[in-house]
Design goal:
- The chain is globular, with a radius of gyration of 14 Å.
- Helix 2 packs antiparallel against helix 5 and helix 3 packs across helix 4.
- The chain is mainly α.
- It has a three-stranded antiparallel sheet, covered by helices on one side.
- Helices cover 57% and strands 9% of the residues.
């Protein structure tokens, strides 16, 4: 399942690069762009179909979760039948659930604020997001 999640995330990244015309990565900026994209799809009625909604929840949730893993650490795991990103001390983030909430409620439940809140909520238990002047940790490998 983790391979499928990563493949979904890569698919979103490639689509994002195509739509944006720029080099996108697993960053806060990409999460913010995806949040806006989700809103445009919401307004177009794209989520009216149960099948489309389910597929896009899976794909966008995979990308959001992979951004969390790459920016803040953690690892994909299952908790009570739901895939999530687990950190130390049993802390978890549920990217698929958060994407579904934005589908339902719009920006009041946006994925960007969720992403930005992780180092605040889990302070000391996740890697802090690098400042704009620093390269993300994975670029050093």
């Amino acid at each position: 399942m983790e391979e499928r999640i990563r493949a979904n995330a890569e698919m979103v990244l490639e689509q994002m690069r195509s739509l944006r015309g720029s080099d996108s990565e697993y960053t806060q900026e990409s999460v913010e762009w995806l949040e806006g994209y989700i809103e445009r799809l919401r307004k177009s009625g794209e989520f009216d179909s149960v099948e489309s909604r389910s597929r896009l929840t899976s794909v966008f949730g995979s990308f959001l979760g992979e951004c969390i893993v790459r920016c803040y650490g953690g690892a994909w795991t299952q908790h009570e039948g739901e895939w999530c990103v687990a950190f130390s001390d049993g802390d978890m983030a549920f990217p698929f659930a958060k994407v579904a909430k934005q589908f339902d409620n719009g920006l009041e439940d946006g994925i960007s604020s969720f992403f930005r809140a992780i180092p605040i909520v889990f302070e000391g238990r996740v890697r802090p997001l690098p400042s704009a002047s620093q390269k993300p940790w994975w670029r050093f490998w």
